[in-house]
Known about the structure:
Largest sheet: 8 strands, mixed
Number of helices: 5
Shape: globular
Strand content: 15-25%
Structural class: alpha+beta
Helix content: 10-25%
Radius of gyration: 25 Å
Number of strands: 17
Amino acid sequence: MRLHLLLLLFFCSRLGFCEEPDFLIKKCLSNRYTHQSCSKVFCQPWEKCVEGACMCKLPYLCPKSGSSVCSTSHRLFRNYCQLKTYECLHPETKFLINGTCEKKETFAVSLESGELPSEGIVRVKLVNGDEQAYLCNSKWSITEANVVCRHLGHAQGALHHRYANDSAIRMKAPHCLDVTCRGLESSLSECAFSKRADTHDETPAGVTCYLREVEPPSPDSFECVNGKFVSRSKTCDGINDCGDQSDELCCRACRPGGFHCTSDVCIPEDHRCDGEMDCILGDDENNCKGEESSETQDQGVHRGEVRDQEPARALNDNMDNERRRIKSLIPQITCGMRRNISTRRKRILGGKAAVKATRT
Length: 360
């Protein structure tokens, strides 16, 4: 079935005489699965699965190990997991920086040159940075754009990972920063920032955040569970365009670039054999002998990008590595009941267990 859909997609795109095949499973869509549906995906390490939904853990259920982190309210937490459990219950408190708190520390995201407050060129000020910086466009994607818009208060994420006029605007600074997100972060400060030596040919990254009243849905749109509309051609490709992952959780097959889990979930192809189980049945980590793990690759190389000749310099701690570490500390649960094989013993009241006599 999967091969049939992919072949049909290939011929339709090349010849243009037929309708694009539908990768989505309609019956499954009625369940309205999201990244919070633990019958489809793993909960975050600071959440627990309760009757098919990911719910907030209490802070004391987090592992005790890990370095301290500071929140936007300048409250110090024992570790990243403890902060995220607190944020789960108090969404206004978000991650700021790994380490102790300093009163003057701030992290800021802004958009400039846009006609609306919800669009423009992205600028950031890192906690340990002296001034604002642009983000590089070459490694910019909808994954990072969704996090930027969510950080700025747009719960449905980004409409486009570009701004209509961003290609015509040249940077006003000699350098820009690369940013890598997983896609479910609530704050851009949780993503990994790095700086390359030579970025003078770069254009700045732009974004248009999703506003339903401004951008009416087109006839071929897919409605995400969070109410956002995305192109149907962007479903089942392994990329979380919706921002709540609902475009990737009911797929009979995946488009090129996606890996199909047995649970009918599409994940990015580069998440396969990366040392972390993403498919709920673990099929993305099967038959990985001889394949390079992403843990051995350089930071910042993702989604099939070519390695830079000059290695990038990390500007902050990669909190996705900390998320993976916390996840590895969670006890593994084996489903089902242990088989109990019992033997019947007969004994006289007050006697001892009989033993087989031996010949002398």
